[in-house]
Amino acid sequence: MSNRLFKIIKNYTNNNDYTFSDLREFIDQNIMNDNPKAKTIATRYSLTKNFIRDNYPEITEKQLKLIKPDDELTNSIIQKDLEIKSNKKNIKFDDILVDKILDFKNTDNLYELAIYLQFISGRRADEIKDPEYKIRATKDNKLKMLLSKKNNENKNKYFTIQIIPDTITPAQFKQSVNVLRQNMNHIGSNDYIKRLNRKIKKLVRKDLTSHNLRGFYASYMFNEHNPDNQNINGFISKILNHDSDNSSLNYSNYIYEKTKKKVNENVDENVDENVDENIDENIEENIKENI
Question: 265-272: long-range contacts (C-beta < 8 A, 24 or more apart)?
Answer without folding.
Answer: none
